[in-house]
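Narrative of activities, Objective 1.

The group set out to show that a structural description can be obtained from nothing but a protein's sequence at a throughput compatible with the screening campaign. Below is one input-output pair from the validation batch, recorded exactly as produced.
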Amino acid sequence: MTTGRYSLFRAGRVALLAAAALTGASARAAPLLTPPSLMPIPKSVAYTGAAQPIGGMTVLWDGRAPTPLLKRAATRFLQRLAALAGPGGGAAPVALHIRYGVDPDYLTLHEKEHYTLAVTPGGVELRADGPAGVLRGLATLLQLVRRTPEGPVLTDASIDDTPRFLWRGLMIDVARHFLSVETMKRQLDAMELVKLNVLHWHLSDGTGFRVESLRYPKLQQIGGHDQYYTQAQVREIIAYAADRGIRIVPEFDIPGHTLAILQAYPGLAAQQPVPLTPAWLKTCQTDFSKSSSTTSCPKHLNLNNAALDPTSPDVLRFAEGLYAEMGRLFPDRYFHSGGDEVSPDQWTGNPAIAAYMKAHGYADAPAIQAAFTARVEQVLARQGKIMMGWDEVSEAPIPKDVVVEVWRSSKWTGLATAGGHPVVVSAGYYLDLLRPSRTHYAVDPFDLQSDGFSPAEGAAARVKMGAMVDAFTLDPAQSPLTDAQKSLVLGGEAPLWSEVVTDEMEDARLWPRSAAIAERFWSPETVRDVDDMERRLPDVLAELEATGLLATQHDSEMIDRLTPGNVTPLRLLTAATRPVMNYALNRLVTRNGDAMLTGPAAIAAPDSLLAIRFNRLAARYAAGDRGVAADLRALLTPWAANDAAYRAVATTPLLKEALPVSHLLSALARTGLAALQPGGHDAAWRSEAERQIAAAQSAYDSCSRRMSTTGSLPPSGLLIGFLPGVRALVTAAR
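Output recorded for this entry:
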């Protein structure tokens, strides 16, 4: 189902969801029936209650001629407006007057993003303190446009807007799975539309180094795996981002996560021989790729463990040389040097390093890492850069100028700011955990109790994780942030690590959840209505897809490859399900292979938008609104009949793994239909319904906690998304 250029189904899962928003207002300045789906919500917004027909817009610059950057922004805006609005319906173009101020701090942490919008029957006025404010205002203006049967309309509104946090980012990992230049550009386009302003680009890690180095060419020759960005491509992407008001902060991870670097330059390693190099394979007396039963190599090699030798002068010279080259390539003041997950035995297990630590008074690995971090910070400072590192770098005293990126739990925001460090918060926003938008949306960067293990969960996880669990466990006695500490919180980032994300999956794994997180970073702290956020989410996704995002297209292509003869059963299945959470999919892929990244679990979305709609309707029904029964039946009926059709197309092992969830999904749908019927809900029926619900719930329970698995994971990696709604209907059945 489509409405003009809006694609309103996401592999079958967005059908019907955006239709109401696109047809909810009549043309000719009719009353506004529902507010537009703005995301992020502005700091201040008021609607007059009317919407006016538009036939495009004419951009007029008041007071100051546009810069080349703003000319390109205006052209981009008009192209997007045409894609969103469709045919003008005979209405006249609306005049858009733009006035902006000069901002020497554009593309820095302190750029001027404030803007005001006045949309009236006489036209539109956009006033911005600087170029960034113009970009933010144009993004909001696009979201005030809707389609109606009579043509596009523009919602009259008065908006005064500025961001809550200065740093609003995505972290995209291209080390594990490489992303094309075109894929990177699509994400930057989407980021502009939801006012994200930092791309943290994770360019090196254990298994990959993804940027051309002229000084150390072996890095890309060996670690690039024939997939890396040339320096010309990097400059192209940086310029593309700058046009959209987005800074790019590169990350080259040291001293851990350095296998790709050490394969190229093994003399820098803390442990010899370096894994997967010819010397290491010879030591193992086998070809590692053949996994011979006679091999002396470790069966479960952790490719993230290999670390640099922090005591070697050559390592610091290498870091200085690499960072100097990359610092010239990336103009932003901030430079991320990683610093996370250094395995202590990489250093303590080397007699020479252990002796060095003892001789210099370093009690443990964090202590010597702090000294190494301080030297790297001095290197970057001499090069005119501000160092960033993951929160491990703050476990021992380091220079206060180092920006700490908090990831292991929210408590580190308190600990790092108490030490005087600026902080960027990622804890609670990890997109690769495959949690839904509502979970991320509930996390506030200032809340020190919002993400991490409770003490009881930490105690339970300690059996498997050991002492490392302490870093992920919250401290209920921790004092809230003071105003001084809050001033050190620059903002937040949503990371997407790509162990189980391919180029084809990237759009759907980032969006629309990143839009919900963008609202948390931009909008006032009081904007907390999760249900309203979920109401707006399909419309925002529709906007992003109309203007270039390929989430639906890529999902459809994956489905077409899997079931070319009949795509409907798999579309229905993946529209009603969602992938397992909390790294459970990583474990399944490790166990079953990368083929899962082409299967149903790679297509199903963490936000099953169709299931969200069903669950919302079911909650209304359970609360007494029987008027939604017909809509519920319309959703349940195809799901109830889908199992037989899916069995007919499930002819490959990958598809057969989803047969149990297909069967249970249809059974639950039939139970939901029965719950909508009057009578017949005897003890036997209720017992069977509860059995089905318990079976579906057990799959959720198996992946309910981060890095902790209970019970058996569903082999397909799928959870039934409309389970809460069916549970509500069964409870309400009389």
